[in-house]
Structure formats: C-alpha cells, structure tokens
C-alpha cells in the first residue's frame, strides 16, 4: 500500500490539482527574475493581491472550517516549464504556484487573474481530497477484481496502481470545468474580465476529448466560462 500511496501523489501531481513539496519554497524577489519576466512579475503582485482577497472571501463563503489562507508564490526555478498549480503545504494551507515562464506567457492581468482564480477554485471545491478519494477507491476495486480472478500478489499490486490512475482521472475533467466556473466568478469579483482572461486558451494546445484525459476540450472550457459570464451579466 505504500507504493499505492506514492502513486496517488504522482497521479495528483500530473495535473494542476497537485500536492508536491515545492509549495514551501518562497517566491524570489522581482529583481532576481529575468528581464522579460520582471514586468510581468510586477503585474503578478497586483493581481495576486486582488485575486487572493477574493479567493479567501469565496472560500469562507462556500466552505465550513476550511483553510482559506491562500499563499500565491512564484517558483524560483527559471527553467521550469510554463505551469500553474494548486497544492497544500504541511499545515494544510492552500498554495498556488506559478512558474516564471507561465507568468511571462500571459499577455495581461485578466489572463493572469483567470488562471489564478481557476487554481484557487480547485482548493475551494476540495478537488485534491476528492481526487485522492477517487484514486483510493479505484485502487481497491481493481485490486479486489485481480484477486477474485486468481491474480498473484504482483498482479494485484499492478491492478491497484492501474485502478488508482483510472480512479483519479474519472472526474478530473469535471473538476477542471468546476474550477473554470468558480474561477470566472473569482476573476470577476477581483476586478478583472474573465472573457479576456479566457483568451489564454487560444494559445494552449487543445487536449481534445480523450478517454481518461485530465482536461476537457478547450471549447468546452470556454463554454463554461461564457455561461458563467452570462449569469454575471457580462454577456447579454
């Protein structure tokens, strides 16, 4: 089961809802960033303050007794690929981490706010716990099936690992759409335009609708944002 626990961490860290250790690394000073990232980092500070405040307010409104004390950090690794993810530190405090290349890839504060709001929404919706539970259930079910069909210890272990992957991915697309919906609200309440922010998807490769894919098609995500924006009165 120790191998299964490790696998669950690896499964969860394969997408934006993840629990890796880098969350404890402090953000670097803006002067330490590359020149092409420095301007974006200044924008990052303003956006993170606005989005962080709204994320905390939304978290307190939608959860009971949950940790809503968000930290928003910049990954000090200059070579890290473009990525943003939500994790938890050792105290269970929600942390949102942006790589420097991710910050530089955004074209305006609206895009940065939208991505940030999306990651905050993962925590508010409890996606790490829900995904971990799904993975654990998948591991148990697949392991039991392997045992019932006469599998040996190695076969059962392999089935558990496969079940963890399948379980973790079963609702990951739904989680992403939930985060897009709530992230739209957080972005709007923070004073940014989610309809401009969602244009970030125009530059992201479309994952399509793959079986057990971690993310839904870009068009489906844009539709979720537009529907929420319409409810907010941004679209008539």
In short:
This protein is mainly alpha-helical and 236 residues long. Helix content is 58%, strand content 6%.
Short descriptors:
236 residues; mainly alpha; three-stranded mixed beta sheet; 3 strands; disordered N terminus
Structural class: mainly alpha
Q: Total number of β-strand segments?
A: 3
Total helices: the number is 9
- Spatial arrangement of strands, main beta sheet: 1-3-2
Which blocks of ≥5 consecutive residues have pLDDT under 50? 1-32
Helix content: 55-70%
- Rounded average pLDDT: 79
How large, in whole angstroms, is the Cα Rg?
19 Å
Largest β sheet strand count, sense and barrel closure: 3 strands, mixed
How many individual domains?
1
Strand content: 5-15%
Order of helices and strands: HHEEEHHHHHHH
What is the molecular shape? elongated
């Amino acid at each position: 089961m120790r191998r299964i626990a490790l696998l669950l961490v690896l499964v969860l860290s394969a997408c934006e809802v993840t629990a890796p250790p880098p969350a404890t690394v402090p953000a670097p000073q803006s002067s330490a960033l590359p020149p092409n990232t420095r301007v974006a980092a200044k924008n990052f500070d303003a956006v993170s303050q606005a989005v962080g405040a709204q994320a905390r307010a939304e978290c307190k409104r939608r959860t009971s007794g949950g940790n809503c004390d968000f930290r928003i950090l910049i990954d000090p690794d200059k070579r890290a690929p473009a990525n943003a993810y939500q994790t938890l530190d050792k105290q269970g405090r929600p942390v949102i981490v942006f790589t420097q290349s991710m910050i530089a890839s955004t074209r305006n504060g609206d895009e940065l706010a939208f991505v940030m709001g999306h990651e905050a929404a993962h925590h508010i919706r409890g996606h790490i716990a829900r995904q971990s539970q799904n993975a654990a259930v998948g591991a148990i079910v697949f392991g039991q099936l392997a045992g019932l069909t006469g599998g040996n210890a190695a076969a059962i272990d392999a089935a558990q690992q496969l079940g963890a992957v399948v379980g973790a991915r079963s609702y990951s697309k739904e989680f992403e759409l939930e985060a897009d919906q709530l992230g739209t609200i957080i972005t709007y309440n923070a004073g940014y335009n989610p309809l401009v922010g969602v244009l970030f998807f125009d530059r992201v490769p479309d994952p399509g609708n793959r079986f057990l894919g971690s993310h839904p098609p870009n068009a489906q995500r844009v539709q979720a944002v537009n529907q929420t924006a319409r409810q907010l009165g941004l679209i008539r």
